[in-house]
Structures are given as C-alpha cells and as structure tokens.
Amino acid sequence: MAENGLFPVSVKRHRDRYWRRYRSYDFAQYVSECVLVDDEICPAAAAFPIVFRKDASGVSPVAVLSMNKAAGTPFVSPDGSWLAGYVPSALRCHPFLAEPSSEASLGTNSPRRLFVDEASGLVTDDSRDQAFFTTHGTLTSDLDNILKFFEYRQFALSRTRTLCSLLEKLGLFNPLEQPTTAALPGGLHEVDVTKLQNLPRDQIAVLFNGGALQMVQAHQVSLSHFGWMIRAQRRHSVAPQRDEASTGLNGFMSALAAEAVVTQQDWEVPCAV
Asked: Quick one: CA dihedral 234, 235, 236, 241, positive or negative?
C-alpha cells in the first residue's frame, strides 16, 4: 500500500505528525463509482444512478459517478466543490481508509488498521493541525470517531451484501444494458423488472420485510439519471458552450449543490452513514 501513498497509522510513524481535514473534492475527480450501503441507498438514488457490481466479495450496490472514467466525474467542479446533493459515505473520510476486519459485527474486538494517504498533502508536520495520537499513545477522539465510522460501515456493507445475495439467489440480476453513447466498465448489473414482477407473493414478502425491495425500487428509479448524466459528462469533458441546453444543465448542477443539506464539516467527521 505504501506504493500508493497509504501507510498504517502507527505511533512509531505518526506520533509527531499531524493531519488536516480536506477542503476540496479533487481527490474524487476520477472516482467513477462508489460502493453504497443500505442506509444510504434512498438519498443516493436521488442524485446518482445505482447499479450492482459482482466481484469476489459478492454483489454490492454502487453509485455511478462517471460515465467515462478518463473524463472524470461531473459532480466535482473545477474548484473542487461537490455538486451533488449527497456525498457517498465511501468519500467522507479522506485521507483515511480502514483495513476490513474478519468480523463484520458491531462490538467485536477484531484487529483493524487505520491507513492514511500520505500522498494526499493532508499529512503535515505543523502542530497547528490535528494530532494522530494523544500524549498517552492512543488515537485522538476525532480519529477514533473515524475508525468507528469505518467499523459501522463495514457492518452495514455486510448487511447490504446479504440483501444482494438474496436477490442473486432469486435470479433477479442481468448484465446492465449500456446506456446509449456511454461506455461503462464491465461487471455491472441491473434488476430484471419482469422477473421481479413474476415472483410469488411469499418471495416478494421476504424481499419487502428484509429491505431488499426498497433497495430495488430505489435502483429502478435512479436509472433515470443516466440520461442527464450523459449530457453532464459531455459538458464536463469539453469546453463550455453558451447554449440553452448547457446553461440549463449547469444551473441544474449548481442547484443540486446549493440545496445540499449536509455541511462539509459533517461529511469530514462522520459518526453515521
């Protein structure tokens, strides 16, 4: 991980070093998708297309942030502002990451390491910034809160993948039909609406009671975002043109940013997803 600038947070390496909170979302400029957990599916569906990715860890819902990874996401402005009305939880703890533990349940004492991206420019030697450790060699309260956030998010992700596993067992996933003029990466899936509608009532009840049906409904509604995202991506990757369509789209993105109800400080020191 050190090759990517990530180092385990340790007393030996960081006792006399400091960190500062991010003030720009430039780090997310080329993030094309974010894994979501069940608690954030509905607010995320109001801002991004939500689809499903299959990998070795199982099936997870992901928010699509870019239709063209090389062009970057239209949700980050040139000055680093976030332009969507919701920030995915996976982006809230920059420059920190956590190593997943083997136990995905709250209250366990399983080993877990916190990593920091020293290439982010947010790790400093300035004592006016925030310390990594107290004088007793324990994590400061802010870093402890971040670690607890990662612990809860892992628990929520395990719960979310259980719901997705149920959908998979019912044969409800199909490879995502690529939107016109877009070239999304492979491995993405969508829910087959026809199969869902033809499920027996008892299976529908299981999906509803477990929360999987709500996730499916949010996913289906969110797919309508693909249309305007294609236009936003095109505008984001070319020189601005002063025409009615592009001006309207720019105003729409600005309105999303202006109506965000969560403050930047809340995003930076998260206590819940």
From this structure: positive
Model confidence over 170-209: pLDDT tens digits?
999 999 987 655 667 778 999 999 999 999 999 999 999 9
The tokens for 158 are 């395990």
Each residue of 168-201: b (16+ CB within 10 Å) or e?
A: bebebbeebeebeeeebeeebbbbeeeebeeeee
Residues 221-241 pLDDT 10s = 999 998 888 877 776 555 444
- Cα–Cα distance for residue pair 72/205, rounded to 1 Å: 40
Residue of 93, 66, 67, 78 lying closest to 257 (CA atoms) = 78
Sheet holding 33-35, edge to edge: 33-35, 58-64, 50-55, 188-191, 173-175
- Please give the model's pTM, rounded to 2 decimal places: 0.80
- Beta carbons of 216 and 191 less than 8 angstroms apart: yes
Nearest CA-CA partner of 150 in 187, 106, 209, 200 = 106
User: 126: helix, coil or strand?
Assistant: coil
Please tell me the distance from the alpha carbon of residue 95 to that of residue 268, in angstroms, as a whole number: 10
Distance between CA atoms of 135 and 11, rounded to whole angstroms? 10
* Per-residue pLDDT at 237: 59
- Which one, of 140, 17, 39, lies nearest residue 88 by Cα? 39
Residue 212: closest CA among 152, 162, 169, 174: 162
| 219 close to 42: Cβ distance less than 8 angstroms | no
pLDDT over threshold 50, residue 29: yes
